[in-house]
Amino acid sequence: MSRRTLLSAALAGAVTVVAGCSSGSDPASPSTAAGSSGAGASTSTVRFALDWTPNTNHTGLYVAQQNGWFADAGIDLQILPYNTALPDTLIDAGSAEFGISFQDGATVARAAGADIVSVMAVLQRWATAIGVKADRADLTSPKDLDGKTYAGFGGPTEVPLLKEVIKDAGGTGEFTTVTLGTSAYEALYSGSADFTIPFVAWEGIEAEHNGTPMKYFEYTDYGFPDAYSIVVTTNRTWLAQNPDIARAFVQALQRGYRFAAEQPDEAARLLIAANPGVFADEELVTQSQRMLAEKYLKAADGSVGTQTAQQWATYGGFLFDAGLLVGPDGSPLSTAPDYSTLFTNDYLSTSS
């Protein structure tokens, strides 16, 4: 399974899984995890749910952990490894305080009734793009994808997004979709599919290392609204009850991602050191971190972690207009949500 596959699974399962787990949950229960480390030094346990095995989207978390910044803030960090339960589902159910999510997934889950909110944008823009084989001279624009075959992952937003991009480039947006998941890249290089949507800063670099490079069409080059590829979410009720713990955690995490943006090589080393034996290709980790630092971790004003109402609203508007936001009753929302309630910058450090 690729990380793109996981994102699609998160989107596809957001409504039903969240609905199934939120009922009867006690969002206040995480605060009871707060304990004491002894000798009068109080610490608060914070559980952070990963969306996948450790990778460079998580670097700031491990940088802050390795440098002792959570401990300095009075936080006893517990990292919950990826499993079949989505981080937003765990957070909504009170089984984790924070976790990795996506603007897509958080918006869809919130529409379905999940009690979550984004407290930080890890990646400030789309980190996926339309990928085609680098040697396909016949594919120079998204409009050339008309009539071609898309190797997809089954997420509900994939095809609507691709149609919009192709139409903006002058095409009809008509193409064949085959849901292949883990086999998408293999299909691309065998010639049985023409395009897919990889994470450029991981799967794109991995493809180069494997001698099968891709070239890309960025969504925003064709009029599609930008979005935060990776965000950190928390439970809104827990947040209201534990603002000081939340602020201490978020600012330590923000510090970790700021470090990753400014010192990518050292940040990659810390990520690898925190996860011995996980990365077979350590050079991939370093190159990925450099690319994230150069293009994705910092906002236009140089800040790290910040979010804007405009970015949440423009992409949220696309999801609503496409009928992709479904309420707790399983029906598409009839009224656009208040996108400003999907995120908050209130817990970030203003010194970013």
Question: How would you describe this protein?
Answer:
Helices cover 39% and strands 14% of the residues. The strands form 3 sheets. Strands 1, 2, 3, 4, 5 and 10 form a 6-stranded mixed sheet that branches. Strand 1 and strand 2 form a beta hairpin.
Features:
six-stranded mixed β-sheet; 39% helix; 352 residues; two-stranded antiparallel ribbon; single chain
Quick description:
This protein is α/β, with parallel strands linked by helices and 352 residues long.
Give the overall shape: globular
In what range is the share of β-strand residues? 5-15%
Separation of the first and last Cα atoms: 35 Å
How do the helices and strands follow one another from N- to C-terminus? HEEHHEHEHEEEHEHHEEHHHHH
| Alpha-carbon Rg, integer | 20 Å
Helix/strand-derived category reads alpha/beta
Give the topology, please:
Elements: H1 3-22, E1 35-36, E2 42-49, H2 59-66, H3 69-72, E3 75-80, H4 87-92, E4 98-101, H5 103-111, E5 116-123, E6 130-133, E7 149-152, H6 158-168, E8 176-179, H7 184-190, H8 200-209, E9 214-217, E10 230-235, H9 236-241, H10 243-262, H11 264-274, H12 282-295, H13 309-321
